[in-house]
Amino acid sequence: MATIVGGLGLSHSPTIISGKLNNKAADPAWKPIFDNFEVVRDWLKQKDIDAIFMIYNDHITSFFFDHYSAFVMGVDDEYKPADEGGGVTPIPPIPGHAALARHIGQVLVAEEFDMSFFQNKGIDHGCFSPLSMIALDEDGWKGSIVPLQVGVLQWPVPSAGRCYKLGKALRQAIQSYPEDLRVAVVATGGLSHQVHGERCGFTNQAWDEEFLDLLESDPEQLTELTIGEYAKRGGWEGAEVIMWLIMRGALSDQVKRVHRATYLPSMTNIATLVLEDQGEDMPEPQQQAVRAKMTHQLSGSEELEGTYPFSYETSRKAWRMNEFLHELIVPQHRQAFLEDPETLYEQYGLTEEERDMLRHNQWIEMIHYGVIFFLIEKTAAVRGVSNPELYASFRGMSLEDFQQTRNVAIKYSVSHTADNE
């Protein structure tokens, strides 16, 4: 089983990554940042941590307001640094633990948290600025991550209490993972700061110390505060410390503080906190119960012949093909697909197997490969193939034979130019 070794609270800031990339470790103004993160780095090495569950917020880099979720978790094999406006930060992609992520996602949804999930998105300084200080050296990254992006920038945002409850469910999810892993739960953000409006520059170190005290000894008291109260005490952007309650909820009631420090060089009070979990491991019968609940809603589907649930594992496997076909909603891509498909296949790096499926309209083979039906439907419409022709092909029947199984023999598709009969 996976073990939660401890929880970390680490501020994120462009200050941090700027100092690292510009070799400021010996500069007196920057040295406290490096010294405090070095303690955390040493703790991770000492505890032999395999994976980090990384709770952060994106700064409108990879997540825009056309789709802004409260909780969105990465289920990918790696995460590249994103371009925040000044070019891509020169650090290597961060390895992801996709299997652990998928397990956690299933448990959280089973516990009725309405999760979103992401793949092939970059991560910004909200995640990699503290992470690079504790897990990146000249030999590359140490361990792997599961990132959770929390939507704290557009109202309404999750309450402190909701974050804490998510942490409780996260504890069950991690501890029920069947493979042996040593996991640290890391929350980033804060401490007090405000970076917009006439209140820009506000900090409150007294509140920061009180928050850290309560987080360790009485986190439930922190769940009673509203977002407005967090903003009043710690600045509007400083209210993002509600993310730390996810980390604290994932720990047991019994924790041991092994490190705590703050440093306020400019706009943000930069904190580093290490809490070791002193609680007991989840008993095996409880682990089995969590895993059973996780898969309960799919129970019986394996008996449905010719049925293929679309999972995040399937999505990862067939990402390239699904992405290529999704682009058919773009007129230029659609035109190129019809006029010069081979050039387009090369441009997207499709494998020979994938190209053959498209060349020969191998619809059922696409289903078996992991292409979701609704992209096959779009492909068929572009090529003038009706939905009933697709369905007949899936079942290995002629169109005429398939139509005899329907109440009315009609033809239709998602194309507005389709032949309707």
Would you summarize the structure shown here?
By secondary structure, the protein is α/β, with parallel strands linked by helices.
Please tell me about this protein's structure.
With 421 residues, the chain is α/β, with parallel strands linked by helices. Helices cover 42% and strands 15% of the residues. The N and C termini lie far apart (58 Å). It contains 19 helices and 12 strands. The chain is elongated, with a radius of gyration of 25 Å. It has an 8-stranded mixed sheet with strand order 6-3-9-2-10-1-12-11, sandwiched between helices. It has a two-stranded antiparallel sheet with strand order 4-5. Strands 7-8 form a two-stranded antiparallel ribbon. A hairpin with a 6-residue loop joins β11 and β12.
Give the strand content: 5-15%
- The number of helical elements comes to 19
SS elements, strand count: 12
Shape: elongated
Helix and strand composition category: alpha/beta
**Relative helix content:** 40-55%
Q: Provide the spatial order of strands within the biggest beta sheet.
A: 6-3-9-2-10-1-12-11
End-to-end CA span: 58 Å
Radius of gyration: 25 Å
Low-pLDDT sequence parts: none
Kindly report the average pLDDT value. 94
